[in-house]
Amino acid sequence: MTADHTDPFTRLLQSARKAHRPIILDGATGTELDNRGADTSSPLWSGLAPLEEQPLLEEVHRDYLACGAQLLTSCTFRTTQRAFDKGNHPAGHWLKALQSAVRIARMIAAGSCLVAGSVGPLEDCFQPHLSPTGATARREHEQSCAALVAAGVDLLWLETFGTLDEIAAAIAAAKAAIDERPISFIVSVVTGSDGRLISGEPLVDAQRLAHEGGAAAFGLNCIPTGHVETALQCLVQIDDLPLSVYANLGFADPHQDWQGSASLSPVAYAELAASWIDRGVTLVGGCCGSTPAHIRALARRLNPGDHPAEPDRSS
Fold it and tell me: Which helix (H) or strand (E) is 157 found in, with range?
């Protein structure tokens, strides 16, 4: 028998395509921790949760898994040396948080689903003018990507990027980090209501960067559900670059700040997601404001027959 040398995400993708079924991602971590009483008010958002809210973080991951998620995302979106230095945390504290986040996700996944290492922009994802560029961005992203790979993630998930320069830097960093242990990486971006990157740059240019850089998928995240259709229309069909969407379910103001969560019911969100699948999207989940109930609705609507159960809270 010929050995299978493909990485875990590629195998999952091949299986999903063969079965003509989408891949169900998990939902929000930070806002769900907030819903359950964690303090996410600092600039690090949920970055300290892997050290200070471990039982709660385990519970969030466990509920997403029970609701049908085929992938758990590590709680590392703001876990960078830059962010922790700004918060005056001790040297190396960011790495301890990152390693704890991956350990917790892997423990809950227990081999039954994949663990994606979340890598976000180095500055505010909705203020792209603050993003570092060039060698600085690549060096800092490579530090985070390398730490995630060493901690044992199954793939790198570059998400909520809004500028071509930082996307290029993050892709280069991901490729360097996975050189020793070949795994996939995904690129996901945030757009405005016009379907362009939040920086104003063309969305299709980001898609091409991802494809030419070797990304396993390209997606949209942290945008209002009403912006998804416009963004999808700006993309081109690339057969070997699957699309993903996980929208923000908070209430967006005109400047795309967010208030509250769950602007759509789980059933309504699942119906909307079904229309994205019809447009060629392969991976779908939820961003800020989504809950395990939204992921359960996605799994039931898009992968009928699985019937994920309600999370067990009896223990």
Answer: strand 155-161
- Collect contacts of 91-100 with beta carbons under 8 A, ≥24 apart: 93/51, 94/47, 95/147, 96/51, 97/47, 97/48, 97/50, 97/51, 98/50, 98/74, 98/144, 98/147, 98/148, 98/151, 99/147, 99/151, 100/50, 100/51, 100/54
Q: Which of 233, 257, 28 is nearest to 125 (CA)?
A: 257
> Residue 288 has which token pair?
């800020």
Which amino acid appears at position 209 of this protein? L
Residues contacting residue 231 through CB under 8 Å, at least 6 positions apart: 191, 195, 203, 220, 223
Domains with residue ranges and CATH for the chain: 8-302 (3.20.20.330)
Output the pLDDT for position 128: 86
Chain centroid to Cα 172, Å, comes to 18
The ranges of the chain with pLDDT < 70 are: 1-5, 251-262, 306-315
Alpha carbon distance 246, 56 (integer Å): 23
Question: CA-to-CA distance for 97 and 52, rounded, in angstroms?
Answer: 9
pTM, entire model: 0.93
